[in-house]
Write a structure and sequence with these properties.
By secondary structure, the protein is an alpha+beta fold. Helices cover about 40% and strands about 20% of the residues. Strands 6, 7, 8, 9, 11, 12, 13, 15, 17 and 18 form a ten-stranded antiparallel beta sheet that branches. It is globular, with a radius of gyration of 26 Å. The chain starts with a helix and ends with a helix.
Length: about 675
């Protein structure tokens, strides 16, 4: 079992290390990402699928545990789709049948409530004439509370509205195994109980649950104990949910059993069991409020480290009500965007996409550590901070004028550097990916030599963005990390050829070396030397190595006419072997621009960024990109024509924002 998990995690390196890191094959292995958008506050993060069902719920960070049972099956026909009982969803009791709003026959259209809003609007239309259900979902920016509001239209009489929750509280991150929160769901979850006269249900799991904890929980469930008994469990993950609307019934059950909350709601009745222990689910039945000829219901889901904390957050949100909570959330993000620097453009559609890029990036950033996850997904596991990707997120923050969070993000890397040699983990290197708490998330057998090189480049570039006055202070804060990483890269060389030694190559699933590796390592050593010179640090060994690597790059990557010998060198512009703006980039930039309309996801975002950066000082060339900018950004964010949602990938969003910033800011 251990060896198979290790082998699986070794292969996970390709998700972050691949030159073209989109999902493809990995969705075949882990299941297709059933996510179209996310809403979060840097702590609580919820993702929805194309019918509005909550498919991911991460807390206390976008890079921590998933708190749901939501096992996506592979594309193999033997395991189609997702069980209807998984996740969080609504059901309508109409004509003696419970209609779950999580798939066929409902037809879905989705968009954001506004261009600067994180409220995800999902409109579901039934095959029954005139029957629609519209869901509004968002996470409160200042409290770990998920708000889900439903409006049903086209009915002559009020339906009973069910809300079903299949939470699976998780309290542990397994170092170097970033799949434990869903693959090992059987080891998660703990108990659920009805929270007395507060009209709420509580799912929870104490930290480090012991045999005695399980025994005590079963005793409390048998006694139908009230909240005063359950709250005596220690801190962990506590989830309290309920509604400001009238609650007609509830059920605390066990997944898959006849008394499960899902099966009872599906049959239209909830028996009122007050507690369950094990793999639990729950449901509440609501009497909707009449709202302008429609029927409306709201559910509030609060998270905390203890019952009291979660309950207090729930009660505060309940006291405010849906309308005020939505108004506060919209106002918060509107003001946040006003504090950023946006590219100058008169195109409202382009401005909306640029804002969306920054909102995606903000949703992916941990509010405590400032780690930025690639995407808050579970399958495939991308809720990790990959240094080689994170440097582009730092660059995007700087271009948006968000220098403080950019500094914190580089500080996250500075703290995560390896300080001493361990087997497979050299001093000065980084884990290929981090959890948001700084723990290594990928096995140390994956030695990503390029990660410290990109991080050093990010240190240097971020320092330049701060201006002369603040630059020395910043460089001093990251000097220890710079020293370790540059020493590592300068010494990671073949004594006979001077070329860098091997680094893990995901395409071959083994260590190798290449001209691209040479360019990246050269960039890192040069960046470390720039920082040393800025601080007055004399490093003759680094200077000699930087000169040696520059000569190797020139002889390996350029021919006698100083033209590229690489097939597609555009993504290696940071190496500065050929300066940005040089006409020798034109052939490659023009080829990417010609193909831009056919590219999607990462390839569209990467190409847009690279084209913009190599032409950044040539307004006439950037003018050629401007007509393609809007479509390229939509493709990068996986947004179809018309109102739609942005796929919550912070790498795609950052690269697209960088490209848009450079192209839009250039004079026509």
């Amino acid at each position: 079992m251990i060896s198979s998990i290790a082998a699986c995690c070794l292969l996970l390196g390709q998700l972050g290390l691949s030159a073209a890191p989109d999902y493809g094959f990995w969705e075949e292995v882990f299941g297709v990402s059933d996510v179209v958008a996310a809403s979060g506050n840097g702590g609580l993060t919820a993702c929805v699928n194309d019918h509005g069902r909550v498919s991911v719920c991460k807390w206390p960070s976008p890079g921590y545990y998933d708190q749901l049972t939501y096992r996506i099956r592979s594309r193999n026909e033997k395991f189609p789709g997702v069980p209807p009982s998984d996740g969080l969803k609504w059901g309508l009791r109409i004509g003696g049948e419970t209609k779950w709003l999580c798939g066929e026959p409902w037809k879905s259209t989705q968009c954001y409530a506004a261009v600067d809003s994180t409220v995800i609007k999902t409109r579901l239309a039934s095959s029954e004439a005139g029957l629609t259900a519209t869901q509004y979902l968002f996470v409160c920016p200042d409290a770990d509370v998920l708000v889900v509001h439903l409006v049903v239209e086209g009915l002559d009489a009020a339906p009973t509205i069910f809300w079903h929750a299949d939470f699976s509280p998780c309290t542990r991150l397994i170092p170097e195994v970033p799949i434990g929160d869903w693959l090992l769901d059987g080891a998660n979850d703990f108990a659920v109980f009805e929270a007395g006269n507060h009209g709420a249900i509580c799912h929870f799991r104490p930290e480090g649950a012991t045999h005695d904890d399980w025994a005590r929980a079963r005793e409390f469930a048998a006694q139908e104990a009230g909240p005063d008994a359950w709250r005596t469990f220690r801190q962990g993950v506590w989830i309290v949910y309920g509604s400001p609307d009238e609650i007609l019934g509830f059920q605390c059950g066990l997944e898959g059993e006849d008394a499960s909350a899902f099966k009872q709601a599906d049959l239209g009745r909830l028996s009122g069991s007050r507690a369950a222990v094990g793999s639990c689910d729950s449901a509440i039945a609501l009497r909707p409020a009449v709202k302008e000829g429609a029927y409306a219901a709201t559910v509030l889901v609060a998270f905390g480290e203890s019952y009291d904390q979660a309950r207090e957050r729930f009660m505060q949100a309940k006291g405010k009500g849906y309308e005020r909570l939505k108004e506060e959330a919209d106002g918060y993000w509107r003001e946040w965007l006003r504090g950023t620097i946006l590219p100058a453009t008169d195109d409202e559609s382009l401005t909306a996409l640029i804002k969306r890029c920054l909102l995606v990036l903000a949703t992916a950033m941990d509010r405590r550590s400032s780690a930025i996850v690639r995407a808050p997904l579970v399958q495939p596991p991308l809720a990790l901070d990959w240094p080689r990707h994170g440097v582009w997120m730092t660059t995007a923050l700087d271009l948006a004028g968000l220098h403080e969070p950019a500094s914190r993000h580089t500080g996250f890397y500075a703290e995560g550097i390896r300080g001493s040699d361990l087997p497979g983990a050299r001093a000065g290197s980084f884990p290929a990916a981090f959890y948001a708490n700084g723990t290594a998330a990928i096995p140390s057998a994956v030695l990503d030599v390029e990660a410290p090189a990109w991080v050093l480049w990010s240190f240097w570039r971020h320092g330049l963005s701060l201006g002369p006055a603040a630059r020395p202070t910043y460089f001093a804060t990251i000097w220890d990390a710079t020293l370790l990483s540059t020493e590592f890269l300068a010494g990671w060389s073949d004594v006979n050829t001077g070329l860098p030694l091997h680094s893990f190559d995901p395409s071959l699933v083994r260590d190798t070396r290449s001209p691209e590796l040479l360019l990246t390592v050269s960039t890192g050593v040069a960046s470390g030397l720039h920082i040393a010179n800025a601080l007055g640090q004399d490093r003759p060994g680094w200077s000699a190595r930087a000169n040696e690597m520059e000569a190797l790059c020139l002889s390996t990557c350029l021919d006698r006419e100083r033209q590229w010998t690489l097939r597609d060198p555009l993504s290696y512009w940071p190496a500065d072997i050929i300066p940005a703006g040089d006409s020798r980039w034109d052939e490659y930039a023009e080829a990417r621009l010609k193909a831009l309309g056919d590219l999607r996801g990462y390839e569209a975002a990467r190409s847009l960024c690279d084209i913009a950066m190599v032409w950044q000082n040539r307004p006439a060339k950037l003018a050629l990109v401007r007509p393609h900018l809007l479509a390229a950004m939509r493709h990068a964010l996986r947004m179809e024509e018309g109102p739609s949602l942005a796929f919550p990938d912070a790498l795609h969003a950052s690269l697209a924002f960088i490209g848009a910033s450079v192209v839009s800011s250039a004079s026509p």
